[in-house]
Amino acid sequence: MSWDSWIPLLVIASSLLPGLIIFGLAEERVRLRTTLNLLGAVSKLALVGLMLWGVFHEHHYETRLALLPGLELVLRAGPLALLFVTLSTVLWLLTTVYAIGYLEGSPHRSRFFGFFSLCVTATVGVALAGNLITFVLFYELLTLSTYPLVVHRGTDVARRAGQTYLIYTVVGGALLLLGTAWLYTLTGNLEFTPRGFVGHLGPEHGPVLVIIFALLIAGLGVKAALVPLHGWLPQAMVAPAPVSALLHAVAVVKAGAFGIIRVVYEVFGVEFAAGLGVMQPLAWLAAFTIIYGSIRALFQDDLKRRLAFSTVSQVSYIVLGVAIAGPIATIGGIVHLVHQGLMKITLFFCAGNLAETLGVHKISDMNGAGRRMPWTMAAFTVGALGMIGAPPIAGFISKWYLGQGALETGQGWVILVLAGSSLLNAAYFLPIVHRAWFREPPAEWPDEHDFGRKETAWALLLPPMVTALLALGAGLLASTPFSPLEWARLVAQREFYGP
Amino acid sequence: MDVLFSEIPWGPVLILLPLAGGIACFLFPASAKPLGLLTVALVGLAVVGLGWQLLGHGVYHHAVGGWGAPLGIDLAADGLSLLMLAMTALVGFGVSLYATGYFKPADSVRFWPLWLLLLGALNALFLSGDLFNLYVTLELVGLAAVALTALQGGRDALTGAMRYLLATLLGSLLYLLGVALLYHGFGTVDLALLSERVMPSPVAWAALGLMSAGLILKTALFPLHFWLPPAHASAPAPVSAVLSALVVKASFYILLRLWLAIFADISEGVAALFGLLGAGAVLWGSLQALRQTRVKLLVAYSTVAQIGYLFLVYPLASGMGVTAWSAMAYLAFSHALAKAAMFLAAGNLMYFGGHDRIADLDRVVQRLPLTAGAFALAGVSIMGLPPSGGFNGKWLLLQAALTQGRWDIVGIILLGGLLAAGYIFKVLGNTFTQAPKTHEPISVPARMQWAAMLLAAGAILVGFLASPFLALVGVGDPFNVGGLRP
């Protein structure tokens, strides 16, 4: 094996090993734990940077290990994989910093950071998986490693949320497994291939392939929170803020959406899937989820719950982009994987800051929060405007490409969905922004902590600032090389619609 | 190295070593622990030696005392025997390590001789190539197991042990009747010879019925599982581990051998019946496990369910023999490791908290993270989630079922996995609850926690070792119907 074939494995190891060591650390070894965490995150970032450069120049990074008879564990860094890996690696570093600040002094931190690292390991594995069985393996590992994080607080509410999460994800996992095994008995192959690997099957397999497609999408749709499989996500917001960030932006819902991209483009192939007649229903489902999530978000007073329903809605933009089945919409969908991550993590960080600093959980308590915490709320505002789709923030780019793509394939109704959703987004985000900046703050906050001259701790303030800037940058500098948009173009060009 | 390994007759060593160790433990009770542990470790080395020999020279045969079959006693081993021996050695070592910390001195003195007797009997059983030896070793296994169940006395343990004794004696008796019929009908008890001589006839069918019934009773296949939960749940933790992981597999192994050598060709419809009972076991065992309020009973019912999977293989074997039997090998092996780990973990919880009521476990599990981790890892394999040996088994089984279009079995496999997730998280959910400290715990020695952890990690690790695992199991082509021929 050459060096190149070790790098994907090293990327996995860079969070797995620190995680395993952290499990064994005593609770009070704060410094060592922090060092390990940051060391893992930074070295992963360096490795990913190396691979980005390499893949851009057409290097191949691939690890293959025997797994089952006829099947291998394949880790391959293609352009699409790297898009997701880079997103989760960058956000993992920031979330780690945030979590260190957020959990300071709370119990069970070794357990928390151990599972936190495992969770990122699983996510990176999902991203790098070069065939469906490897994907399934890491997808299940992701379920198992996030459950302890969801129930971390140990309250009754948390346990119930964890139970709901498990029921949804374990059943989803079983469907995914069934679809995968069935596909394997049909094709004898599970390797992700540009334009899919089921195309050679004759038309007599059509109905079976439709069922398999439905099984796979159902299994993945649970994590991607497609309605009606989204029930776990709003409940899971009882978890600590860094975990919410992880669920909503870095790992879980993204793994589901990413899986759908893989299944559509590299298992079935988008033309073949369209030929089966499954893309149109998927598009309708995504559109329905977008509108439904937004409407539900309107009626939530709990900030994190509103954000959760917003995620339900926003993640389906990715699915919609995939389902429209045209090159431009595809770019819009996969770039939204990154954009939504940057914006949503900003919002969750800010929600966490409000809760930790002021004890504010409800939107109705947020009057004047911008005056007390200007930097936090500035970041929040950037995220919120981006979600609405205001230029020049990243969200605008996604919506623009989705709309263009829909027109290109002659599906004008999508424009209506996008416009309606943008209006709804504005309707549930702008009042928050208005409250925070233009209403008088209350005489006393519910549970205020004093941080001296700063508005809150550095570790809590920096991550949302950085992610807000990244969201802004991804929009402003969209056409520079290595921007998410340009990389998404590269993905579409090389992996989906290439020669 | 190779010369050394191939010269030693590993078969007799594997049987005599634990027996000698058991006698030594009995004679020198003061040093029973180190002697016992040493014996088990040496047995492990001997299995490695046998494996080496098998890889180099194919199927192993040893005529005890120079008298071959049909007059003398033949020891034989192929990949399947090796699988069972390796499973026994691994679980045996984990359990022995655990037992050095678990038993009070008075119990320890009784435990080690009995356990080593059981180990020797198990090894002998897996090395036997004829029906009568299998009977003798099966009886030895059963008696030693019953004695171990009753080790600590107490009403529950004695009742459980009594039911177990009756079930196991009845099972052996039925089996023996079958042996007598076959001997009468075909003039030999050697499996290899029988496989050539047996033809479809009333004698053979009667033998099939009697032996299957007896062995199914001893394997605790639904609906003949009634004796297992009380016996396995009331025994001391290391004994429960051995019973669930190894002892039920012994009778299963005999049934499998009989099937492969004699019955597969003459038994219309029996495979389907086995499959049906297996499906019943998976559902019933899992549902019962979900209902339990005590950890050990939950784990015991989980064994009932997992045995069901092993029988789901029979109806699939006619179409996709090797895939289906490989699935069985994987399921049996990883279940042994995972289930032993679970019982040891449950033992730690009881040792620490003085009870195993699931509802009151919260604080207990939280303060034993290593044990909780072992339970969780073992659970991953039992649920059949990747990466684990349990997953590999389930995947292969799914392949066999899907290829043959057996949707009923596919459904059972998936449903069984979901139910397993249900009962395992019923225990694990308590790991994260915040609850007040209510009692003064007894601290658990580190090696007891690590024993559970190592076994559980083994169940996970074997999921990554598919090709060497299947290569070893495949030595001598045991799953080709009529196997274990010279």
Topology readout:
The complex is a heterodimer of chains A (499) and B (486).
Chain A: H1 7-23, H2 30-56, E1 62-68, E2 71-76, H3 79-102, H4 109-128, H5 132-150, H6 156-187, H7 206-224, H8 232-235, H9 241-250, H10 252-268, H11 270-276, H12 279-298, H13 303-324, H14 327-358, H15 369-372, H16 374-388, H17 394-408, H18 413-438, H19 458-476, H20 484-496
Helix pairs in contact in A: 1-2, 1-4, 2-3, 3-4, 3-9, 3-14, 3-19, 4-5, 5-6, 5-10, 6-7, 7-10, 9-10, 9-14, 10-11, 10-13, 12-13, 12-18, 13-14, 13-17, 14-16, 14-17, 14-19, 14-20, 16-18, 16-19, 17-18, 17-19
Chain B: H1 2-7, H2 10-27, H3 32-57, E1 60-63, E2 74-77, H4 79-102, H5 105-127, H6 131-149, H7 155-186, H8 191-197, H9 202-219, H10 228-234, H11 237-263, H12 270-291, H13 295-317, H14 321-353, H15 362-366, H16 369-383, H17 389-403, H18 407-428, H19 446-461, H20 466-473
Helix pairs in contact in B: 2-3, 2-5, 3-4, 3-5, 4-5, 4-11, 4-14, 4-19, 5-6, 5-11, 6-7, 6-11, 7-9, 7-10, 8-11, 9-11, 10-11, 10-13, 11-14, 12-13, 12-18, 13-14, 13-18, 14-16, 14-17, 14-19, 16-18, 16-19, 17-18
Please give a quick description of this structure.
By secondary structure, chain A is an all-alpha fold. Chain A is 73% helix and 3% strand.
Task: Give an account of the 3D structure.
The complex is a heterodimer of chains A (499) and B (486). Chain A is globular. A two-stranded antiparallel sheet of chain A has the order 1-2. Chain A has 20 helices and 2 strands. In chain A, helix 4 (109-128) packs antiparallel against helix 5 and helix 13 (303-324) runs parallel beside helix 17 (394-408). Chain A starts with 6 loop residues before the first helix and ends with a helix. Chain A is mainly alpha-helical and 499 residues long. With 486 residues, chain B is an all-alpha fold. Chain B has a domain at 269-481. The A-B interface holds A 23, 65-69, 111, 136-137, 140-141, 143-144, 147-148, 151-155, 158-159, 162-163, 166, 170-171, 173-174, 177-178, 181-182, 184-185 and B 323, 326, 369, 373, 380, 385-387, 392, 395-396, 398-399, 402-403, 410, 414, 417-418, 421, 425, 429, 431-434, 464, 466-467, 470.
